[in-house]
Design brief:
This protein is of the alpha/beta class. The protein folds into 3 domains: 178 residues, 3-Layer(aba) Sandwich (Rossmann fold), CATH 3.40.50; 85 residues, N-(1-d-carboxylethyl)-l-norvaline Dehydrogenase, domain 2; 101 residues, 2-Layer Sandwich (Transcription Regulator spoIIAA), CATH 3.30.750. It has 19 helices and 15 strands. Strands 3-2-1-4-5-6-7-8 form an 8-stranded mixed sheet. A 7-stranded mixed sheet has the order 10-9-11-12-13-14-15, with helices on both faces. Helix 10 packs across helix 11, helix 15 crosses helix 17 and helix 15 packs across helix 18. It is elongated and about 80 Å long. The relative contact order is 0.09. Bound molecules: nicotinamide-adenine-dinucleotide. The site of nicotinamide-adenine-dinucleotide has 23 residues, from helix 1 and helix 4.
Length: 501
Amino acid sequence: MQTNNLNDAPVLVVGAGIMGVGIAQVAAQAGHSVMLLDAREGAASAAKPKLAQSLETLVAKGKMPAGAAAQILARIVPVATVHDAGTVRLVVEAIVENLDAKRSLFQQLESVVDAQCILATNTSSISVTAIANGLQHPGRLVGMHFFNPVPLMKLVEVVSGLQTDKAVAEAIFALSQHWGKVPVHARSTPGFIVNRIARPYYAESLALLQQQATTPAVLDICWRGAGFRMGPCELMDLIGHDTNFAVTQSVFEANFYDKRYAPSLVQREMVDGGLLGRKSGRGFFSYGSDVAKPAATTFVAPVFPGVRDVHLHGQGAVAQRLAAALATAGLTFAHMPDSDWVGLGIDGRHLRLTDGRAASSFGPLVAVFDLPLLTQPGAALAWAPSDSASAEWSALAAQCLRALGFDTQQVADVPGLVVARTVAMLINEASDAVHQGVCSAQGADDAMQLGVNYPAGPFQWLAQWGASAVVQVLDHLDTHYRGERYRVSPGLRHRVWQHTA
Ligand code: NAD
């Protein structure tokens, strides 16, 4: 298929809902003339005054020059049927998430538009290959997956099905850039990139809650301490547990019930009980004007407790961080860089960075702490003493961690604690996606930072933490839980071999 530059192509957007109106706005803002169509009578026309209001707000806030709003609106023309759109060179579909509805719309469109017209779908979960099945020219159909709210979110997943023409995917990639977005190529597989790689962020949190390891509030504190804007529990409350559960189920089913994607009984129970999150007034947390917000606290590090000797074990980013904190606390310490673990020896007892094993597996003299992703003092960090640790050692371990600048959050002695096990699983999922040709490593990093606001991408974490350490955590989780969930991606295992060869 010969594909021209689409920068000045007339566009038809089908579906004047949340996504369609956002897409129409972005296209018109980039100078396209846009036709807007919706099956519901009057919906496309009704969208314009609503859009006018939000554009005026932008003008009032000084975020859009006066006059620009009127120009954008003038470029958007509601139409009544697909037959009004014979001249467009691009269709972006954002109708109901239903395979039959999408197939039938595109088949109808093929009888109206030119053979060169590109057909793009904004589906968030349906196979692009399946939508194209039955088209006369299946090579022209491509996924153009925007994120909500469309004008603000930078990411566009450009999703190629089995028959998508490479030139079509490239034309949509270039057009997305022209629209001020950051496009990422993806192969059409369940969840594409973001909805696939993000699963462990929810799944591990739900697994920890099911094991009674901690509370939703503590989980969220730990994740904000790792640099995330929202913890998993408040995020699931915002998305809605029904929506999140449905996405999890669809990814699970689409992967032929691979246990790695298994939904959680915790979430099932919340959905069954109508605790859907913000929209129902209660999820993990309660919402409403009468609910008091927790008061902000200021972190003050105590002085390092009086101990006889401190040894720093291991190398890498966490060991460096501990070395800097010990120096700031004015402590002299011996460094054992070749140790096979990372952490501190304190008067013969061990405060270890989790490697995916519970502290209790080492006996009474060990406590474990979570992977610290943020370097600023006062960042929350999960930790756990061994079940058989003395009260004196538990108190000392917590005091040492606080003196080193960590806002300690004690959780049950679960393997991999909170952040380490989840980040390892995010890296694992991203590695599998790359291994299976779904996206590139750079694409995965861009997608997770721009699609769900992660503070860094999975491959950036991998570079910091090291493939062997990540695989070690996963292998230990796999040994502990015995199932398919924590199996290491072949792509990740190969990275370890490449670095040790
Ligand atoms: P929405 O319900 O807000 O809007 C859908 C619109 O499509 C409605 O106005 C409906 O009347 C119209 N419609 C339904 N069938 C139609 C047809 N056959 N022809 C023309 N119009 C039709 O939905 P939305 O949230 O905007 O989602 C639209 C699509 O975008 C879905 O495929 C969804 O999965 C995808 N998506 C949604 C989000 C999100 O966060 N809402 C994010 C990414 C992708």
